[in-house]
TrEMBL record:
Lineage: Eukaryota, Viridiplantae, Streptophyta, Embryophyta, Tracheophyta
Keyword Hydrolase attached: yes
Domain Sialate O-acetylesterase: 26-256
Entry annotated with the keyword Iron: no
UniProt cross-references to Pfam families, sorted A to Z: SASA
GO molecular function: hydrolase activity
PANTHER family linked to this entry: ESTERASE, PUTATIVE (DUF303)-RELATED
Signal peptide: 1-21
Organism: Camellia sinensis var. sinensis (China tea)
Keyword set, alphabetical order: Hydrolase, Signal
Protein's UniProt name: Sialate O-acetylesterase domain-containing protein
Length: 299
């Protein structure tokens, strides 16, 4: 009996000291939407110029979830193995991560884990719950959480493809809101912060309708930054590398300013405290129990 109890205690103590690594409190950000989120900065004639500005440089504390669901050190182009049918260039993700990590006032420390999911040329209707893109996003987000950490936000830049038909533009606001709510539901994060980008221009004539929807969406913790005025590549379709740098900084600012209190990614700590507490209680109960036995033996 005593041996069994000791064994139980030892097993319990094992849980007290989980293999801890700094990755346990990874700050995870999901990047989704279409080409400007995927990144086309520095692309000319289907070739990336390979120019990586200082703000987009790799950093051992910035990881990305690869297409085969492994954490690897992140580097441009972030979406190279995700948005595979096109040439990818610089997007806002690396700038965002570097800016957030370098901010001295923010309590974001440790590791930033980026989960690239954007695919060029996709309409909002292709991101609806149950679609391939949606399932892919939710699947990658869940995989990202496997070895700890917490999802801090979704960065979303999409809508250009919905400016072409009047019907898509008219339905945009409803579809966008439903997408955000479904996603929060399936990620079990009802107030997941979402930072989206309002279009500067679009592929069709209904830009204003889509912008109105983006700027007018009235959901808690959904913030919008405006891409109006950012520079476009000579193709007039994509943001330049420099514009992507500006956009990444704008998104990082919006994120940093939205933090009401220092970010707490305490999931491991909470469970740690819980184990300490429950082990302590078990030991206490055990002592009382053993005490009783001893007393009974004496009597
Ligand atoms: C684009 O690249 C192709 C193949 O390298 C070349 O033949 C073509 O002249 C280039 N076009 C421009 C506009 O630079
Ligand atoms: C790439 O193209 C193939 C063939 O058209 C398609 O099945 C696949 O879904 C595309 N992948 C992406 C990420 O766009
Ligand atoms: C990229 O973003 C710019 C600025 O919002 C926009 O004008 C352009 O239409 C976007 N392009 C695509 C293909 O999404």
């Amino acid at each position: 009996m005593l041996a069994f109890v000791l064994l139980m205690l030892l097993a319990y103590a094992g849980l007290l000291f989980p293999t801890s690594s700094q990755d346990n409190n990874k700050n995870i950000f999901i990047l989704a939407g279409q080409s400007n989120m995927s990144g086309r900065g520095g692309i000319n004639n289907v070739t990336w110029d390979g120019v990586v500005p200082p703000q987009c440089q790799p950093n051992p504390a910035i990881l990305r979830l690869s297409s085969d669901l492994k954490w690897v050190e992140a580097s441009e182009p972030l979406h190279k193995d995700i948005d595979v049918n096109v040439t990818c260039g610089v997007g806002p993700g690396m700038v965002f991560a570097n800016t957030v990590l370098n901010n001295k006032d923010s309590s974001i420390g440790g590791v930033v884990g980026l989960v690239p999911c954007a695919i060029g040329g996709t309409k909002i209707s292709e991101w609806g719950r149950g679609s391939h893109l949606y399932n892919q996003l939710v699947g990658r987000a869940s995989a990202a959480l496997q070895d700890g950490g917490s999802i801090q936000a979704l960065l979303w830049y999409q809508g250009e493809s919905d400016t072409v038909s009047p019907e898509d533009a008219a339905l945009y606001k409803g579809r966008l809101g439903r997408f955000f709510m479904d996603l929060r539901d399936d990620l079990q994060s009802p107030l997941l912060p979402i930072f989206q980008v309002a279009l500067a221009s679009g592929l069709g004539p209904y830009i204003e309708k889509v912008r109105e929807a983006q700027l007018g969406i009235d959901l808690t913790n959904v913030k919008c930054v405006d891409a109006k005025g950012l520079q476009l590549e000579p193709d007039h379709v994509h943001l330049t590398t420099q514009a992507e740098v500006q956009l990444g900084e704008m998104l990082a600012d919006a994120f940093l300013h939205s933090l009401p209190t220092p970010i707490q990614s305490t999931a491991p700590k909470t469970s740690h405290n819980f184990f300490i507490f429950s082990t302590f209680s078990i030991v206490l109960i055990m002592f009382r129990y053993l005490n009783l036995i001893v007393e009974q033996d004496i009597i």
